[in-house]
Every structure is written in structure tokens, then in C-alpha cells.
Amino acid sequence: MSATPTVLILPGWQNSGPAHWQSRWERAYGDRRVEQRDWFAPKRADWVAALEAEVSAAPGDVVLVAHSLGCVLTAHWAATSPRAVRVRGALLVAPPQLDRADMPPELADFRPIPQQRLPFPAVLVFSTDDPFSNAAWSHGQAEAWGAEPVDMGARGHINAESGLGDWPEARAIVAKWMKDLI
Question: What is the C-alpha separation between 27 and 11, in angstroms, rounded?
């Protein structure tokens, strides 16, 4: 049996505040946040390097828990890192549709979004009224990444304002990847 994997929290642009479900998980379960040098003017190469360093430092396998731009980071990292084989699974929540005209210019460095299948199991959770993507695009992105799509209905950007609290339903998805593999 292998060791319990390290859960890495990958917030999006501007980080996740204290009421965000990612921050709540970090406090409740000891998950490790991948800190970025600049949360407000993100550079893809810097963010990918930070994720690579955290996966390298983990004592064994990892589970990735990404929100918004963190989902796009996951896809960019997985497309280039040989360490992607250490990922047991990825929870990808509310990825932004970066090719929209109304996307903040600060996110341009993350375009284009990789379209290849992720080399690990993934679940992509999306909302029907997310201000940064639409449901049809999100479903198509799940298909491109080989992720299981989960439609949350009208929950906004699936962040602190969505009223999810500790979001136990999503933690159950992560828990299946936390079990020791034989």
C-alpha cells in the first residue's frame, strides 16, 4: 500500500479568501496551498514552476484541488511535467473560458487552454450561471480533458459567494482518491 497522498490546493486568479471552500479545506484537513509569487498578475511559467516544485516536494502521490485559473494551470502543468504520473486525481472547479472577449487581460498569458486529455482521473464541476464560462463550454472542456463533468446548476463561480460552506459533496470526490491503492 502506498502512503496517503498530499492534497494540493490550486486557487485561481487573486487567490481564495478565508470563506472560500478551498481555504476552509486547508484549515480543516491540512491541505497544502500552492503559493504563487503574484496572484494578481499571473504568469503561466511562474505558476507552472510553483506547482512543479510542490509536486516534487511531496513525499508521494498528490491530489490536485483546483479552482478557476487553477484548473487551467493544472492542464498546462500536466501537458509538460513528467511528474503528472504522481497525480491520483484532480478536482477541477469552475475553469474560466479564457477566449471570451470579457476576460480580464491579466489572464491572457494562460491562453490557449491545453486541449489534450489529462493523464490522470479528473472531475470537472461547473455551474450554469458562472460569469466566467458557460455550461456548454464547460461540458466540452471536460470532454477534452477526459474529465467527468458535474453540473451544479446555478451556483455562480462556485466560490465563497456560492454558499457551499465546507462543500462536503466535493470533499467526497477527493476522498475516493485519498484511499490507499493496492
Answer: 14
The percent of residues above 70 in pLDDT, for the chain, comes to 97
Query: Helix (H, G, I), strand (E, B), or coil: what is residue 135?
Result: helix
Q: What is the CA radius of gyration of the chain?
A: 15
Distance CA 79, CA 167 (A): 29
Q: Quick one: 15 exposed, middle or buried, by C-beta within 10 A (0-12, 13-18, 19+)? A: middle
Separation between Cα atoms, residue 31 and residue 64, nearest integer Å: 10
In this prediction, residues 1-17 reach a mean pLDDT of 90
| 1 has pLDDT over 50 | no
CATH class of 6-178: alpha beta
Domain ranges across the chain: 6-178
